[in-house]
Amino acid sequence: MPLAAWRRAGAVRRGRAAAFLLLRGPLLLALWGGWLAAGENGTDADTSAGGNVHRISGGPTNCGEYSNQVTADGQCRLTATLPQLDEQRCPDMFRCTDEVSYWLHENEERKQQILALKETISELQEELRSHRHRIKVLELQNEEKNGLNSSLEQRFRELERRHAEASTLLHLQGSLIYDMQTQIHNLSLMVEKVRRNPGCMINIVRTSPLMSAQEALHPEVQHVRNCPIDCASIYYNGVRRSGIYTVVPSLGATPVEVFCDMETESGGWTVIQRRQDGSVNFDRSWREYKEGFGDLHTEFWLGNDHIHDLSSQGDYTLRIDLEDWNGKHKHALYESFSIEEEANHYRLHVSGFSGTVEDSFSWYHNKQGFSTSDTGNICAEISHGGWWYNQCFFANLNGVYYKGGRYSPKGQSPLGPDGIVWYTWKDSDYYSLKKVSMMIRPRTFRPRLSP
């Protein structure tokens, strides 16, 4: 420790301080040389008790003294006693030797190295932080890739599932195609059999509506055998589904498409008229009522010629189904029904009433001829439809379609009602029904079990 430091420590303590320094080997000799030099420049040496005592002076002032002696283990013991000095500066106690200078130089280099190491460590720490950030980014990217892989795996599984479903559907389609090929083959055999054994071809080869009447009566079309003459015949052939079919009445021998009702009261009914939504205008001419009009899927009139041909080939029953705007259903059943040919104005023959509604048809319209507005019949003009009028009607199923039930005559005509009327149900001519249908089948019809 330098002398000035010792002096400052002494000033704090307000007393004397003793310092001991043990030195070994060459450093002891160097310090000893320094002490000798100090003795020459401002110290007084005094030898006592195997040691040397030196007084330190700074001009006229005594700065203290120190002594040294060799201990038994070969070490040098240095003792210094310094007085309390406030402002007096004493000379340096020691002088730097070459070895001290060396170690001081080495210490400075170590400091520089430590500073360099600190900078290196700081750089390494920064690089470590950068690597940690990079690792975090890579971890996030890895998580995203894992998520993407998971999504791709799910998609792959979904594709596998769809592939399995597609394979199943393909197998089913293959089976259906095979069944269709089998059916086509069987149908081809049936067609070939029919060609070899001529019979009814009407359900295979149908006449075109563009053919003339003379062409329609060609022998190849006219002379057919074993053809269904009505929907009851189709029913007996094993058909149990309602729909549009072709029949050939035995009298007219002209093919006609009809709608067959295979559900109502065991089926077998040939529908000759239907009203259900007002989509077809029934204010038509005599010729249109003769040939038929409308759509067999919705509203239509089959045609007086076809009705004559069908009803005149045997004993037929007529059923009339009625529905009002409250959803109530009723029907009228007539044991006997037919109409004459055009030359007799399609005169009506209907009798044998029964049903769930009172009769408004047979008792008043039986034996009446058919009329349309273009024939000069005033009732047809008032009612705006073709029917078997009798001053004028108690039942008119071909009148104007009014929605809602109660109605006023079209154009506020004072001549009379013109709706779809069944008088005895509502006891009124001014209630128009929502739905009506007329259909016939042989009186001798008996339902059969499905084949």
Automatic annotation (TrEMBL):
GO terms for cellular component: fibrinogen complex. One of its GO terms (biological process) is positive regulation of heterotypic cell-cell adhesion. Residues 1-37 form the signal peptide. Its main location: secreted. It is found in: Secreted. Residues 222-444 form the Fibrinogen C-terminal domain. SUPFAM superfamilies: Fibrinogen C-terminal domain-like. Keywords: Coiled coil, Disulfide bond, Glycoprotein, Secreted, Signal. It holds the Pfam family Fibrinogen_C. InterPro entries: FIB_ANG-like, Fibrinogen-like_C, Fibrinogen_a/b/g_C_1, Fibrinogen_a/b/g_C_dom, Fibrinogen_CS. It comes from the Eukaryota. One of its GO terms (molecular function) is extracellular matrix structural constituent. Residues 107-169 form a coiled coil. This is Fibrinogen C-terminal domain-containing protein. It comes from Megalops atlanticus. The lineage of its organism: Eukaryota, Metazoa, Chordata, Craniata, Vertebrata.
